[in-house]
Specification:
transcription, mainly alpha, two-stranded antiparallel ribbon, DNA binding
Length: about 230
């Protein structure tokens, strides 16, 4: 029986090589699928990237050596580049202006996950509404502000001039400020930066300063009266 199995194995080398090739293909396909699943995120910006280019996540090379910020900046830059290519008519980066950046930000709103109440909504200005409402979902101001910061840095890293950076245009800054103020009123929250509290000055600081003062010389001893005055 053993000799028969050896004969069948040796007599079909092409079949064995085909099986090995199939197994190799299956293992390589599974590794590609696992890598793409690991690199995918559940954020709304990742949804926008997949909508622009569904195959971009599987074709991207692994960037495990880069930091999380650098990886996110590269993905954002690729997403914006794909948006320019899908634009009608297609736009080149040299012709991109602040108006096109605003179009890109408004396009991302359809992938937002932040509830922004309208003025007619009974929950307008409530940070924790007790019930659902039909108000639209938008991109949060913090996400848009961080996105513009990454794209602004990526533009200059790719050879763009700082004075011609469309992500630093005045119209973009005004738009972000308007989104911040409107969302703060609609959601009943504040985006103001908290000022760092200075450590209180107590008596210990005064005593420590007094310890560094130079020591005063001892008082001079009083001299006894002279003998002429004694009788």
């Amino acid at each position: 029986m053993d000799s028969l199995q050896e004969f069948e194995t040796n007599s079909n080398p092409e079949t064995n090589s085909t099986i090995i090739n199939i197994n190799t293909t299956i293992s390589s396909s599974s590794s590609i699928i696992s890598n793409s699943t690991t690199n995918s995120t559940s954020t709304s910006l990742a949804a926008a990237a997949s909508a622009l280019s569904p195959s971009s996540s599987s074709s991207s090379s692994p960037t495990s050596t880069l930091s999380r910020y650098e990886n996110q900046k590269r993905r954002d830059w690729n997403t914006f580049g794909q948006y320019l290519r899908n634009h009608r008519p297609p736009l080149s980066l040299s012709r991109c202006s602040g108006a096109h950046v605003l179009e890109f930000l408004r396009y991302l709103d359809q992938f937002g996950k932040t509830k922004v109440h309208t003025q007619l909504c009974p929950f307008f200005g409530h940070p924790n509404p007790p019930a659902p409402c039909p108000c639209p979902l938008r991109q949060a101001w913090g996400s848009l502000d961080a996105l513009i910061g990454r794209l602004r840095a990526a533009f200059e890293e790719h050879g763009g001039r700082p004075e011609a950076n469309p992500f630093g245009a005045r119209a973009v800054r005004l738009y972000l400020r308007e989104v911040r103020d409107s969302q703060a009123k609609a959601r009943g929250i504040s985006y103001e930066k908290k000022k760092r509290k200075r450590p209180p000055h107590n008596n210990n600081s005064n005593s420590s300063q007094a310890s560094h003062l130079p020591a005063l010389p001892p008082p001079h001893p009083q001299q006894p009266p002279s003998g002429n005055q004694q009788q």
